[in-house]
Structures are given as structure tokens and as C-alpha cells.
Amino acid sequence: MKSVKLLVCALALVAVAGTAQAAGDAAAGKAFYDKEHAGNKYATSAGVAAVGCVSCHGANPKSETKHIKTGKMSGPMAASAGWVDPKTGSKRFANAKKVAKWFKRNCKGVLGRECTATEKANFIAYLKSQ
Ligand code: HEC
């Protein structure tokens, strides 16, 4: 009986931790968004010293995303900007497949690895707060 109670307790803790993580921390997300990383794949390809999410998505996420290498414009990241992707018809962070695809590509280009679940949740929390 005691072990059952412990198990229930542990599951409740995991559930609470999961919820906190899913909600994300907007301040941590902003720090992550703004941080530039020296010598990564994107920096090398664009011929600059350092690149972070901010380099393409912009210091003000309510302004256009402008690709650091190609100069291609593709809509602001801040949720309040209400940008709708002309190709998918979806708003920011509403299309799970698109979100997964871009997290994978851009985290690898900037960090050289995939982002953690916490980094992703924080990133989204920041942009939803803007
Ligand atoms: C070299 C330029 C570049 C950099 C650097 C970059 N991104 Fe992006 N990102 C893009 C482009 C281009 C898109 C697609 C924009 C569009 O058309 O919707 C995009 C889209 C995304 C999306 C999809 C958003 C949606 O519409 O739902 C996510 C998530 C994302 N980026 C995360 C990141 C993260 C996290 C970082 C930093 C670790 C980062 N990006 C750095 C260029 C960049």
C-alpha cells in the first residue's frame, strides 16, 4: 500500500513538472532567443562571426524575419503580429509539423544540436508573450 502511495505521489510530481515545462519561461526564452553563438554552421555560411535565433528572426520579433544569408523576408515571429503563413495558412506555432521541422533545422544550425524540450517551450513562451 505504501509503495502505491509513493507511486501516485511520484506520478503527480511528474505531471506538475510536465505542466511547468510545457508552459515555458518567457524570460529564459528571450535570453535564449537573443544569444548569438560564435562559429556555428549559419555563421560560417553567412560569413559572420556569430549567429543566434535573433540574427534572422530580429531583435524585435514583431518585425519581419529576414534571413541573414539570403535576405529573404518571411514574417514576424511574435504571436501578436498575427502573421499567417501563405503556404500553410497557419499562424506561428499552430502547425506542429512546421514547428518541428524548423526547430530541428535552426537548432542544429545555431547550436549544432537539437533544442531541448525546455528550450523549445521557453522560446515559444517568449514569442507568445510578445
Ligand atoms: C539563418 C536564419 C535563421 C536562424 C538563425 C533561425 N531561424 Fe528560425 N526560421 C527561419 C526561417 C526562414 C523560418 C521560416 C519562416 C516562415 O516562413 O514561416 C523559421 C521558422 C522558425 C520556426 C517555425 C515558426 C512557425 O511558423 O511556427 C521556429 C520554431 C524557429 N524558426 C525556431 C528557431 C530557433 C529556436 C532559432 C535559434 C536557435 C532559430 N529559429 C534561428 C530562419 C532562421
CATH class: Mainly Alpha
Gross geometry: globular
Secondary-structure element order, as H and E?
A: HHEHEHHH
CATH superfamily: Cytochrome c-like domain
Enter the CATH topology name: Cytochrome Bc1 Complex, Chain D, domain 2
Structural class: mainly alpha
Query: Any ligands, ions or cofactors bound here, and which?
Result: heme C
Largest sheet: 2 strands, antiparallel
How widely separated are the two ends?
A: 48 Å
Structural domain count = 1
Number of strands: 2
| Main β-sheet, spatial strand arrangement | 1-2
User: What's the architecture in CATH terms?
Assistant: Orthogonal Bundle
List keywords for this structure.
130 residues, two-stranded antiparallel ribbon, single chain, Cytochrome Bc1 Complex, Chain D, domain 2
What layout of secondary structure does this protein have?
Blueprint: H1 2-23, H2 26-34, E1 37-38, H3 41-46, E2 50-51, H4 53-57, H5 96-111, H6 117-128
Antiparallel strand pairs: 1-2
The structure holds heme C.
Heme C (HEC) binds next to helix 4 and helix 5.
Question: What would you note in describing this structure?
Answer:
It is globular, with a radius of gyration of 18 Å. The chain has helices spanning 2-23, 26-34, 41-46, 53-57, 96-111, 117-128; strands spanning 37-38, 50-51. Helices cover 54% and strands 3% of the residues. The protein has 130 residues and is mainly alpha-helical. It has a single domain (25-128), classed as Cytochrome Bc1 Complex, Chain D, domain 2 (Orthogonal Bundle), CATH 1.10.760.10. The structure holds heme C.
